[in-house]
Amino acid sequence: MTPARVIAPRLPLIALLLVMGLSACAQTASEPPKIETPKGDPSLAGMYAPIQDGKETIPGVDVSKMDPGNVRQVVDYKTGYPPGTIVVDPYARFLYLVMENGKAMRYGVGVARAGMEFKGEADIARKAQWPGWVPTQNMIKRDPERYGPLAAGLEGGIRNPLGARALYLYQGGKDTLYRIHGTNEPWTIGKSVSSGCIRLLNHDIIDLNRRVPKGSKVVVLGPEESGKGEV
Predict the structure, then answer these.
(1) Residue 221 buriedness (CB in 10 A; 0-12 / 13-18 / 19+)
(2) Any idea which architecture 13-220 has in CATH?
(3) Which of 27, 34, 85, 109 has its CA 20 to 30 A from that of 164?
(4) 197, 198, 200, 205: which is the annotated catalytic residue?
(5) Phi/psi of residue 20, nearest 5 degrees
(6) pLDDT in tens, 71-112
(7) What is the pLDDT of residue 24?
(8) Nearest to 205 by CA among 172, 162, 170, 173
(9) Which among 106, 126, 181, 199 is annotated as catalytic?
(10) Could you tell me which of 156, 116, 159, 160 has the C-alpha nearest to residue 139?
């Protein structure tokens, strides 16, 4: 189900594109994250404790510094979409996984800057663990100083901007270049920072990835629908 993690750093760009896949997402952390033991409510801290995930160690997140609304939680949610649907409310900065009996699992997310957001519906056609990343040509053109040096791609790992998992959004069988993915920058959750993708804490994208199979439907709400589902 997942592509190979280890990618030779000097592969030609076209080979990297085939193995890793272009992405509209951005950016890399300048320093590897520090390992922290989460503080605050022990029941919440356990959800965001350090994780050993294969060869990678995911740092813990200090929940005492998080907006309580961004902590993963089950909420009352009214929607016409069936259980298993992912509903993204980019204006409220939440992602909902629709459950049975009027419930949903809610995750705090970071979203795209104005003008770069994904709109409409898509399907998850691919899932990846510790995915590689290649900036799009538009990203390189828009900010060559930042993305030009990364044109050959970046292998998966804790320093990669796609984080621990990525869900690839397709429309009509074609890659939209938008992803729902993890992040190595937990402070960006709840903000408009990306080049188009939906980002979750690494702990949360691992949880979401476990719950949704390939083929799952994703709906990104418009401003007129924002905030209407949660009771």
Answers:
(1) buried
(2) Beta Barrel (2.40)
(3) 85
(4) 197
(5) -100, -40
(6) 999 999 999 999 999 999 999 999 999 999 999 999 999 997
(7) 61
(8) 162
(9) 181
(10) 116
